Amino acid sequence: MDNEKAVVRLPSLTDRPKETHLPNADTNEIKSLVHYKMDNVIHKLPRPHILKPYIDMKTADIELWPSHASTQNCGHKLTKLTRSKSLQLITAESLGKSNFIPQPKLLENLEAYLKEELAFIDDPDEEDSNISLEVYRKTFNYLINKLKTYKHLLSRIKMQYEMALDDLESQIISLKPLKETVVSTAKIYEKKIIEFNEQVKPDIKAVKNQNSELEEEIELMKEKLVQIEEERKEAEEKLKDAYQLFRDEYDAQQLLSIEYKELSILQSGTQSPSDFNKPEEPTEDLTTLKIALSQSVEDADATQAKLDQMIANYADVVPRRQYETLEKKYAEMKENNETLSKDFSILKAEHKALQDVNQELTVEMTNYMNEYTSKKKKLARPPWVKPCQFINPENNYFEGISSQNICENLLDILRNMDKNGARILKKESVYFDGKGLSEDVPKYLRYEGQVYNRQFNKCDCALLIKDIWRRRIKNFRKGSSFADFVDNCLNEIFPIPIMKTEWTYNLVEACKIFAGTNKNIELFWLILNGEMDENIYHYQLSVIKDLMNFLHRSLPSHNVMTRTEFHQHLQNFLNSNDPNIISSLVNKALEEQEAEEDINFDQLFLEDDEGEVGPFLTEFKNWLHSLRMEFFELVSKEIDEESQVSIQNLDLAIRQTDPTLKTYAVKELLCWCFRTTPEMLLRTKPLLGKDILLRLRNANIRFSQIKTSS
Q1: What is the pLDDT of residues 165-204, one digit of tens each?
Q2: How many angstroms separate the CA atoms of 603 and 601, rounded?
C-alpha cells in the first residue's frame, strides 16, 4: 500500500445476496459482499446486517461498550460431528481467535490524549487543577461534538456543571480575603506566643533553679532529722541505763542504811530486833510544827490556786478514755461521711442526668400540651362528668354510663343530647297535660286536655325564640307584658288554636331543658317568667348596635382596623378603667378571625340562624353582666335584707353607688324593683329588703360611662 488507494464498493444495504448453486456462485457471493481490492487481492468485509450501517443516524440505541468489553465473546460457537457420532463444541479460542472485544478507536484516542496532557501536570496545586479541568473540558467538548445524537443532553449536563463551578469559584474568590485575614491573624498570634514564651523563659528558669535549691535543702533537712532521731534514741537508751543504775545504787544505799541501823541497835541493846521495823515516833518540836504548818498553808494556797487555774483552763477537757471513744466515733463518722459523699456525688450526677431528662421531657410535654391545647380549642369538650349538671340534675343515668362506655360512645350520646336535649336519658311521654284555664296559669298556657309532644330540639327552640324576638323588636311598646306579647305572637304565627297550643307547650318544655346550656334560651325563659327585666335584652342590642356604629364612624372608608386602633376605639367607647377587659375583647376578636394584627370589625357582629354569636360578642355580653353584678353587690351593702325598704331608701342607695346614673335610668330600676309603673311609683308601699335585692339582681342598668344612644 505505497501510494495506492483502496477501492471500496458498497452494495445496497437493503438487498440481500441470493443463494445459488451455479458454478460461479463464489464469484457472485464475492460481488454481493463489501470488499476492496489491493495488490490484485480481494479483501472481504462482513455482511451489511452485521456492520449495522447508518447506526450513527439512529436514536435510542447506545453502544454497549465498555460495559461488556471486558467480558468474553461467547456469541459465535460452532459444533461438529465427530467420527464417534458425537457433537463437539468449537469456540473462538480453539480457532486461535481473540475472545475479548477491543475498545473503540474514539475511546482509545481520548484516553491517549488525556494521558499525554495530564502527564505535564506534576504538582496538583490550584493552578494545575484548573489546567487539568480545562483538559477534561476540551475532551468532553470533543466528545459532545462527536456524539451528535446526544449533543443536546450532554450540553445541558455540561452547562449545569459549568454553572456549579462558577458558583464555587465565586465562593472561593469571596473567601480569599477571609483566608488572608486568618493567615495574618495566625501569624500575629504565633508571634505573640513566641514573645510570651521568651518573656516567661527567664522566670521559668529561675523558678526551676529555686525549686532545685529547695529540694536540696529538703534533702539536707531530712538527713539532719534522721541524725537527730538517732541521737534521741541513743540519749533515751543512755538515760534508761543511768536511771536503772541510779535505782540500783539507791536501793543498795537504803539496804545499807537499814543494816547499819540494825547493827547499831543490836550493839546498844536498847531495842530488840523485832522493834526495828516499827516507825520512829517523831519528836514534837513546836517551832518545827509552826514552820510546817505555815508551809502547809502556803502549799495549800498554791495548790488551790493551781487547782483553780487547772479548772479554769481545762474545764472543757474530756477524759482520755472519753476522748479515745470520741476519736473512734469520729473516725467511723468520717468514714461514713466519705461513703455518703461518694454516694452523694453519684446521686448528684444521676440527679443532673434526671434533670436533663426532665428538661427534655418538659420541652416535649410543653410541645404536646401546646398541640393538645390547639386541638382542644378546635374541638373543645367538657369532661364527661360535667355535662350531668346540664342534662338533668335528678337523673343519674349519665353518671352511670360514663364509667361503662368508651369516649366514642359517650361522644355520640352527647351529640344526640346536644341535638335533642336530655330526652334521650329519660322516656318522654307522647302528650303533655294541659295546665287548665284558671287565672293562675299564664295566658299562653291556658288549655284543657292533652297536647302532642313534638320533642323540640335545641335548634327548633332557638329558631322560634329568634323569630319572637324579631317581632318583639319590631313592635316593642314600653309597659306591655312580654308574656301577653308571646301569646299574641304565637297566635299570629299559628292561626290554628291547636297548633298554637302544641308549639307553645313544646317551646316551654324545650326552654326548661335547654336553659342551662344556652344563654339566649335562658334569658328568654327568665324574661317570659317575669324573673328578669326585658330591658336587659334590648339594652344589650342597643349597646352592641351603638358600638358597631361608633366603629363605622371612626373608620368611614373601610371596615378593617389594626389591633392598636381597635384597642383605642374600644377604650374610647367603653370608658373602662380596667385595661384587662379591653385586652380580653381584642384577643377574642383576633381569636374569632384567626388573625394577628388586622381586624374586620363588621364580621364580629354577625350571628347564626339560632342567634348564636362569636367569642367577641360573648365576651362583651359577659362584661355587661359583670358590670351589673358589681353594681348589685355595691347596692346590696347599703340595703338590709330583713328590714322594709322604701323607694326613697333604694333611690338613695342607687345614687350613692353610681351618681352618674341618669334620672330615667334610676326610675326604670325603681319601677322594676317595686313592680309598679312610673305613675304609681310615689304611692308604692315599702317592701322587704331581700325581695328588693332579688328583683335588683335581674334588673337592667343603663351605665352612663358607655357611649350609647339610649
Answers
A1: 899 989 989 988 888 899 999 999 999 999 998 988 898 9
A2: 5
Bridge partners of residue 36, in order along the sequence? 8, 43
Strand duo 450-452 + 431-433: pairing: antiparallel
Tell me which residue range forms the domain holding 250: 150-271
Tell me the backbone φ, ψ of residue 673, rounded to 5 degrees: -70, -35
Whether 294 is in a domain gets the answer no
35 DSSP β-pair partners: 9, 44
Asked if residue 2 lies in contact with residue 39, where contact means CB atoms within 8 angstroms, the answer is no
- Which residues, including other chains, have CB under 8 Å from residue 700's CB and lie 6 or more apart? 533, 535, 536, 539, 628, 668, 669, 672
In whole angstroms, give the CA distance from residue 622 to residue 216: 92
Q: How far apart are CA 554 and CA 556, in angstroms?
A: 6
Are 248 and 367 within one domain?
A: no
**pTM for the structure as a whole:** 0.44
For residues 616 and 542, state if they share a domain: yes
Give the containing element (helix H, strand E) for 692. Answer: helix 689-697
Regarding predicted confidence, which is higher, 86 or 477? 477
Q: How far apart are CA 462 and CA 453, in angstroms?
A: 17
Coil vs helix vs strand at 7: strand
The phi-psi region of residue 595 (left if phi > 0; otherwise alpha if psi is between -120 and 50; otherwise beta) is: beta
Sorted by sequence, the CB contacts under 8 Å of residue 142 that are 6+ apart come out as 110
Q: Is residue 119 part of a domain?
A: no
